[in-house]
Amino acid sequence: MSDLKNKKLAIIGLGYVGIPLAVEFVKNGFKVIGFDINHTKIEDLKKGIDSTGEVASEDIPAMKNIQFTDNESDLKSADIYIVTVPTPIDSSKQPNLKPILDASKMVAQNLSKGNIVIYESTVYPGCTEEDCVPVLEQYSGMVFNEDFYCGYSPERINPGDKVRRVHNIVKVTSGSTPEIADIVDELYNQIVTVGTHKVSSIKVAEASKIIENTQRDLNISLVNEFALIFDRLNIDTQETLEAAGTKWNFLPFRPGLVGGHCISVDPYYLTHKAQSLGYYPEVILSGRRINDNMGVYIANRVIKLMVKNNLTVTRSRILVLGITFKENCPDIRNCRVIDMIREFKNFGVDLDVYDPWANVEEVYDEYGLSLAPKVGKNYDAIILAVGHDKFKEINLGEIKASSKTVIFDIKSFFPKQMVTERL
Questions:
Q1: Is the dihedral of CA 334, 159, 45, 68 positive or negative?
Q2: 353: which DSSP letter?
Q3: Which residues contact 346 (CB under 8 A, 6 or more apart)?
Q4: Could you report the per-residue pLDDT of 210-259, keeping only the tens digit for each?
Q5: Across 65-160, where does the E strand assignment appear?
């Protein structure tokens, strides 16, 4: 294991997980190939441009030491492959394994004897060995655990977080044999300063990641259900949660829209696997239904508040602040704000969506939505959907149409006295 730094690494997929991982390895003396199928992204990265914002400014110079490429043949020289491609769901909320299986096929066609393939993409327990390994064997012509080996170390990147980074988040590691598990663990220990947690099997590592996000999803769904109940009781949810939070063991979750590439997606991977084994996971799917319906609920709640204020809904001017899935981050993947936006459009309103963090072209390509270039005026309703720090600069009094304007704060971002209602 002492010769690990003589091994060349290939990071497959240079998004929010792959690019900071590649930078961390190259900073620690590894030879790194950074591969992505997006040619524009590769050209930007060669220029030191990181569209994810995940690479710290002081680490940008290190990017010049990464061999960025979209040429599959460049992968042939790698010894260890780390796959960090997305694992989304389809329109039926079933796992879409195409990205990870395509990546596996590409890696297989470049594998050499003795190579290790490590997956970081979030999958259901068993996916690496039951779905990816057969592809690796088929397209490489080699035998698993004889000619090549696998590892699994789930990503724990928190997009937009400037404190918790690759190097200071404990990394779960595993390998397809005890010897490979040791090598994978040693590899990540080269870059993770707070240490690793080696588990007994790839399945355990896969399961550990899937339940991290499922647990969070269920906790949020619980407080979302509290909000739905408290709305009917005319009780302020945030005030109630703050009161309950004075007890030492009350968990500080808050209601809201649950989007992004992890929390709102990963539970469906676990439920898919459970159902394939004949078990129907009632609690997990119930929580998912609550969270998936929150955007529609909020839109209808705002409309009811407008009617209560004698505002004409049709042709009214509504402003939605934020389209990314979380604050101070450009990531728009699986953002559930879009559910609220689509519901508003069903009422025939004049809608502005403003987000200084989001990429205009990406939003249009993903959602068919044109972002407003700036905040306008004379709005009949204003919804704070994402708590970007830049929104603190907005003077609500200057942009609302009248004293009847409904201001709905999903994130409890503005002072309570400034808003009509909080979620």
A1: negative
A2: E
A3: none
A4: 999 999 999 999 999 999 999 999 999 999 999 999 999 999 999 999 98
A5: 67-69, 80-83, 116-119, 149-152
Residue 109: in which H helix or E strand, if any? none
Instruction: Give the separation between CA 327 and CA 322, rounded to whole angstroms.
Output: 8
The two three-digit tokens of residue 2, written as one number: 């002492």
- 3-state SS class at 272: helix
What is the C-alpha to C-alpha distance for residues 326 and 46, in angstroms, rounded to an integer? 28
Per the annotation, the verdict on 262 as an active-site residue is: yes
pLDDT at 1: 44
Q: Give kind and range of the element (H or E) at residue 219.
A: helix 202-233
Q: Which sign does the torsion angle of CA 271, 274, 278, 283 carry?
A: negative
**Catalytic residue of the set 132, 262, 329, 335:** 262
Collapsing DSSP to helix, strand or coil, 11 comes out as: strand
CB 387 within 8 A of CB 411: yes
Separation of alpha carbons 244 and 301, rounded Å: 25
Mean pLDDT for all residues in the chain? 95
- d(CA 51, CA 9) in angstroms, rounded, equals 22
63-122 confidence digits (pLDDT tens): 999 999 999 999 999 999 999 999 999 989 999 999 999 999 999 999 999 999 999 999
Q: Which residue has the tokens 């939505």?
A: 369
The structure tokens 């259900």 sit at 225
